[in-house]
Design brief:
The complex is a heterodimer of chains A (702) and B (125). In chain A, 32% of the residues lie in helices and 24% in strands. With 702 residues, chain A is of the alpha+beta class. In chain A, helix 4 runs antiparallel to helix 5, helix 10 runs antiparallel to helix 11 and helix 14 runs parallel beside helix 18. The chains are: A alpha+beta (702), B alpha+beta (125).
Chain lengths: 702, 125
């Protein structure tokens, strides 16, 4: 819940309403019933005898179900509580609502109960950009149903509304004559069902009530989902709460695209990004691998099915490229937006190979590696054949769709995220540093799979040679020697885009960093310019564009930090990784265990609590996955052959920690650890001291 | 006048094997309405091996649309998935087969592989 709005969802069908359960959307107002990126209800307002209702309380029963307790009258000081109203709503192929009116008086009452209903059938993109519709609307009453329709050429969408109690239907809603006996109740069920296409077949809402009402299947699967994941025992109770919150949110974020055969992958964010996103689905699958490896399997299969196969400028598609985002609404259907699907991301493709290899290392599922040989080879080929726009042996990006494509195709995708120290922005194409790390890692891991599973040692040799060459060039071309870190990007002249940014942590994760440079990089990450005390800032303090509440220019992103912690572990900086884990997990406690997408980069000692960055989506998938990956890095979990190595380095405040039944090629294994790293001491202690020296050296060099 | 649809299917016959479809096995029938007649193409996919006929056979996936629209799709002027989303194509059966098969349609005729420039003379530092 945010801004007084209540959200429930099932896959990419969701309802956003006010705290009364009412929906009164305008074109720019993001409330309504949405499914497959179309708004099927923009008006849903309950009145009793012409009066609006007033919310007493709201129960968020499940992420797909909520209950509103209401009384007549709006807002006054005195509330006449002779009547109360309960609306219980569950989403699933539209939604189902149980409406109950209770009479607390000794006398019977006769009420006129009215539901105003309407739909603007807006595309999600239209809601974002406030665009006008091009088709025709209709409303009619047919066999006890109110049918709201929209039609543009062959594109048709329809909403059907019906009730179990006797109602008078008109084109703008339903009216009930309700008699409620003394201390009695009156009730009706309401079904709102969405349909696509001409004469589309309606699907019953999943939780329709009746004598034979089954338990909602999602609730069952949620229990099973949590039970199947490893169990966490920990002296620090808040961490257990954060862990459970992550598992439940991850369940809510599961999205089952039409081609996945009922299996699900993580969508990017709830509710506006409940769709396939290459980058977000891959990062979240990586974070969740030790806990729910099946998400990775589905992500790999589905993204492989949708892999680019041709050159298409409008969609920024190339053969072998992994998609960025898929949408199903009207603007996509009429090619006014390129999301069918859109391919404008440059990191998803190398990360696809990284995920497949990491998945095999955990699960030993070579069958999938064999099955995905073709898309994985195509992804590796894309790196060399299509991503090297400047012919320099690096991955570059520049959109070909200049009207509706994405300008920045890396994870820091806002307009000002890539800058020089002095704040200038480079031109295009751009070669950000983390992309080169991902490419290096993809080649190394691709080589392992080629040798081990595809039995192609020649390819493996070539990939390893390419990777070694890339690493050598990268450590020469990107190293900012007067600052002792890697530049954020190269520009088209081959100059360094020299701001200091969190991307350095992803470089450690990828393994592209020369051992001799790793210590300096780790010191920068934990130094005062980047580390806020909660986590690593996206951009270092002191850079021209630094702003502690700038989206990618100073805020702290939990997801970013989880990969930075993984990177630090990869190079043996256990204590530094524990320090980042401690900061982010401390922050999580301020958000009831639900980490936001980003929070302010203010110094921890100044604000005392993490300042949330306002975003529309919560939970965000890769923030949800963050505590999972941090558990992995703190415990030092690493598959080695058929074994799982456990090498814990936990912050002191955590105390004793057990992670039981970790699934993998070893079956199930338990891991134990005890907090011994003194992060308080480290925060004020030696590591930041070293970095402070670095800063003065750098400033002197300016 | 060239028939983009016939050219597309003829090219499939010549290709015989398509690596993009190695995951797929099944039959796809295209019912293309052209005025009063319906043009039918049946594609059999066996782990990437392709066979094309004009039989009116039962199929795992039936794709129905107008012949003029399919000419556009077969020549890359219209995107098949967008057309599916707007109801200009209807499909019945195995939707995954559709997702895999649509990859064989060409991209827009004007779209070209992004040119890689020559390497810059060297780093200016």
């Amino acid at each position: 819940m945010s801004n007084g709005l209540v959200q429930i969802l099932d896959g990419n069908t969701f309802v956003v309403s006010d705290s009364n359960g009412d929906i009164e959307a305008s074109l720019t107002d993001p409330t309504g019933l949405f499914s497959f990126d179309t708004r099927f209800l923009s008006k849903w307002v309950l009145t009793i005898d012409g009066q609006r209702l007033n919310a007493l309380s709201i129960d968020d029963l499940q992420y797909f179900e909520t209950r509103f307790f209401l009384v007549p009258g709006t807002g006054g000081v005195y509330i006449d509580a002779k009547l109360s109203v309960i609306r219980q709503r569950a989403v699933g192929n539209g939604f189902h609502e149980d409406l109950t009116i209770l009479n607390h008086d000794d006398k019977p009452v006769d009420l006129s109960v009215r539901i105003e209903a309407g739909s603007d059938f807006a595309d999600l993109f239209e809601v974002k950009d406030a665009l006008a519709k091009k088709g025709k609307y209709s409303a009619r009453v047919d066999r006890g149903r109110l049918l709201l329709g929209y039609e543009r050429e062959t594109f048709r969408r329809e909403t059907a509304i019906s009730a179990s109690a006797r109602a008078r239907l008109d084109k703008r809603g339903l009216t009930f004559r309700a008699r409620v006996e003394p201390h009695g109740s009156w009730t009706t069920d309401l079904d709102v069902v969405t349909a696509e296409g001409a004469g589309g077949s309606y699907v019953r809402p999943k939780y329709a009530r009746g004598a034979t009402r089954a338990r909602p299947s999602m609730e069952l699967s949620l229990e099973k989902w949590v039970a199947d994941a490893p169990q966490l025992e920990c002296d620090r109770g808040e961490l257990k709460r954060t862990y459970r919150r992550s598992l439940v949110d991850l369940a809510a974020l599961r999205f089952s695209p039409p081609v996945a055969g009922g299996k699900s992958l993580p969508a990017a964010g709830l509710p506006w990004f409940m769709t396939m996103f290459g980058r977000d689905s891959i990062f979240t699958s990586l974070q969740a691998l030790p806990f729910t490896p099946e998400l990775a399997a589905t992500t790999l299969q589905v993204l492989g099915d949708w892999q680019g196969s041709r050159v298409d400028d409008f969609r920024d598609e190339d053969p072998g490229r992994i998609l960025h985002e898929m949408r199903y609404g009207e603007m996509t259907a009429f090619e006014e937006r390129p999301h069918s699907p859109y391919y404008g991301s440059v990191d998803a493709t190398p990360l696809y190979v990284v995920l497949l290899d990491e998945y095999e290392r955990w699960t030993g599922d070579r069958k999938l590696v064999r099955e995905l040989e073709h898309p994985t080879r195509a992804a590796l080929n894309w790196i060399d054949e299509y991503a090297d726009l400047m012919g320099t042996g690096y991955i570059w990006y520049q959109r070909r769709n200049e009207k509706t494509g994405l300008e920045n195709q890396c994870w820091k995708d806002s307009w000002d995220s890539i800058s020089y120290r002095d704040g200038r922005l480079p031109g295009f194409p751009r070669a950000t540093c983390e992309l080169q790390g991902y490419a290096y890692d993809a080649k190394m891991r691709g080589a392992r799979l080629a040798r081990l599973v595809w039995k192609d040692p020649a390819l493996a040799d070539k990939l390893e040679q390419d990777a070694a060459d890339l690493k050598r060039r990268f450590n020469r071309d990107y190293w900012v020697s007067d600052g002792e870190y890697f530049a954020l990007a190269l520009d088209t002249e081959g100059n360094q885009v020299d701001a200091l940014a969190s991307n350095n942590g992803h470089l450690l994760w990828s393994g592209i960093v020369d051992k001799s440079k790793a210590k300096a990089v780790a010191q920068q990450l934990l130094g005062p310019r980047l580390f806020s005390g909660w986590g690593v800032r996206t951009l270092a303090e002191g850079e021209g564009r630094y702003n502690p509440i700038g989206y990618h220019v100073g805020t702290v992103w939990p997801f970013d930090n989880s990969f930075i912690a993984w990177g630090l572990r990869r190079y043996g900086f256990k204590e530094e990784a524990a320090q980042i884990a401690a900061g982010i997990l401390d922050a999580a406690e301020f958000f009831n265990g639900q980490l936001p997408e980003a929070f302010g980069g203010y110094e921890r000692t100044v604000t005392k609590y993490p300042v949330q960055y306002p975003t529309a989506c919560s939970p965000q998938a890769w923030s949800t996955g963050t505590p999972l990956l941090l558990l992995r890095t703190m415990l030092g979990l690493e598959p080695l052959g058929d074994h799982l190595v456990v090498d814990p380095a936990l912050p002191q405040g955590i105390g004793h920690l057990e992670l039981l039944d970790i699934p993998g090629r070893w079956g199930r294994i338990d891991a134990f650890g005890r907090g011994r790293v003194d992060v308080e001491e480290r925060r004020g202690g030696k590591s930041s001291g070293a970095s402070r020296r670095q800063r003065s050296k750098r400033n002197a060099g300016r | 006048m060239t028939d983009a649809t016939a050219e597309f299917f003829d090219a499939l016959v010549e290709r015989r094997h398509e690596p993009l479809l190695e995951k797929a096995t099944g039959t796809v029938r295209f019912d293309l309405k052209d005025g009063k007649t319906t043009d039918r193409w049946l594609v059999t996919v066996d782990r990437g091996d392709l066979a094309v006929s004009r039989q009116n056979h039962r199929a795992d996936l039936i794709v129905s649309t107008d012949k003029p629209l399919f000419d556009y799709i077969a020549s890359g002027k219209t995107n098949a998935l967008a057309a599916l989303l707007r109801g200009a194509i209807s499909v019945e059966g195995d939707i995954q087969l559709m997702v895999l098969f649509q990859r064989l349609f060409p991209g827009p005729p004007r779209s070209r592989k992004q040119r890689t420039s020559a390497a810059p003379a060297g780093r200016k530092r």
